[in-house]
Specification:
With about 400 residues, the chain is α+β, with helices and mostly antiparallel strands. Among the domains are: about 80 residues, Phosphorylase Kinase, domain 1; about 180 residues, Transferase(Phosphotransferase) domain 1 (Transferase(Phosphotransferase), domain 1, Orthogonal Bundle), CATH 1.10.510. It is built from 15 helices and eight strands. The strands form two sheets. A six-stranded antiparallel β-sheet has the order 1-2-3-4-6-5. Strands 7-8 form a two-stranded antiparallel sheet. β1 and β2 form a beta hairpin. α4 runs antiparallel to α6 and α6 packs antiparallel against α9. The longest helix is centred in the last third of the chain and has 32 residues. It starts with a strand and ends with a helix.
Length: about 400
């Protein structure tokens, strides 16, 4: 690459790409040494908020000088591009090692975890909470020592140019503590939880909580518990599981209260001793790989039997069905009765006033039309009328019957 920042820092090769910036392997002409140069992406350089956050990261990391933290040497801007110059670590990220070699031996995981804890403890003592502990933010040197990098969303006690609004979640959901996922303030114990997820992934080759979307991962982390590591990797001893159980406690008060405490247990286990967490029965990991219950330090609450609501619902449906069938039977019976009985006087319009003025013979003929079965068999004169009379009587047939009589 031909670019030189401020006539001092040469860009030699692209090394990595992060959420906000690109990292290059560079060369410091003035001091003749290899450096890592982190440059804010061009599409973000025009946004003052991202520029301020980038500069906050440089100032935060520059105040931390520790063997297990990547050092920051310089910061500046060239042709509108903000950059920072860091220590060059000639080794892979922990994420790359996990992808290539996981599951890692427990002893190696303990050594790497102890290095990360040492760097985090130093940051905490200087008032800095990383809030984004994950394998891709850990570099492994040629000697095998781990170095924490990327303090892009770190929180410092004094006022910064970029404030995190209440309820805003920053970071990678798979490694965030429950309090961070719910928008509550993060503290040093949140970094302990993040380190616990990294330890879990080193010995199992998978994240503690999985999901197809970030929201699903967050939901599983808040309401589920990870599978027992020994169910995935039989080489994980119970003592290491107890360390993980305490580091991943959902309640911050149930976790290691400092990274130093976690580091002490990891080193004790790596040396073949018995960590303090092993002697604590409250941090035993629950058996099995059930992902539907939370991995907490207390026993799960008993589940009350469901009320017999389903049975009452079935009974109500049966009663309704019987009533519906009964009503349907009544309707069918009425229709059948109306069809078999033929025409009846109930279908005639009210004619009481007209029938009182007709002679007796007229009344006799109306009775003959409407009630055919009551006519005597000896009266032949009514037979033609009953044969030609329609099955139903309407007001229009009455004049044709009464007119000849009158």
């Amino acid at each position: 690459m031909d670019r030189v920042l401020n006539d001092r820092y040469e860009l030699r090769q692209h090394a990595a790409r992060g959420g906000m910036a690109d990292v290059y392997h560079g060369w410091d002409r003035r001091l003749s040494r290899e450096v890592a140069i982190k440059i804010l992406r061009p599409e973000l350089s025009a946004d003052d908020e991202y520029v301020d956050r980038f500069r906050d990261e440089a100032r935060t990391a520059a105040r931390l000088t520790h063997p297990n933290i990547v050092s920051v040497y310089d910061t500046g801007s060239d042709e509108g591009d903000a950059y920072m110059v860091m220590e060059w670590v000639d080794g892979p990220t922990l994420a790359q090692v996990i992808r290539a070699d996981a599951p890692l031996p427990v002893e190696r995981a303990c050594r790497i975890g102890a290095d990360i804890a040492a760097g985090l403890q130093y940051a905490h003592e200087n008032g800095v909470t990383n809030r984004d502990v994950k394998p891709s933010n850990v570099l492994l040197s040629p000697t095998g020592h781990a170095k924490v990098t990327d303090f892009g969303i770190a929180k410092v006690p004094e006022q910064s140019t970029v404030e995190t609004l209440p309820g805003v979640v920053l970071g990678t959901p798979a490694y965030l503590a429950p309090e961070q996922l719910t928008g509550r303030p993060a503290d040093n114990r949140s970094d302990v939880y993040g380190l616990g997820t990294v330890l879990y992934e080193m010995v199992t080759g998978r994240k503690p909580f999985l999901g197809d979307t970030p929201a699903e991962v967050a939901g599983n982390a808040l309401h589920g518990r990870p599978a027992r590591p020994s169910a995935i990797n039989p080489n994980v001893p119970e003592s290491f599981e107890r360390i993980l159980s305490k580091a991943l406690a959902r309640d911050p008060d149930g976790r290691y209260q400092s990274a130093a405490e976690l580091r002490a247990d990891l080193l004790e286990l790596a040396a073949g001793g018995i960590p303090a967490a092993v002697d604590d029965p409250t941090v035993a990991m629950l058996a099995g790989a059930d992902s539907t219950r939370a991995m907490t330090t207390i026993e799960p609450l008993p589940v009350a039997p469901p009320p017999p609501r389903r049975r009452r619902t079935v009974e109500a449906w049966l009663i309704g069905a019987v009533l519906a069938l009964a009503i349907l039977a009544v309707i069918v019976a009425l229709l059948a009765s109306n069809h078999n009985g033929g025409p009846s006087t109930t279908t005639l319009p009210p004619t009481s006033a007209t029938s009182t003025t007709l002679p007796p013979t007229t009344t006799f003929h109306r009775t003959t039309v409407t009630h055919r079965e009551t006519l005597p068999a000896t009266e032949p004169q009514t037979t033609p009328q009953t044969q030609t009379t329609p099955t139903s009587v309407t007001p229009t047939t009455i004049p044709s019957i009464t007119s000849p009589t009158s």
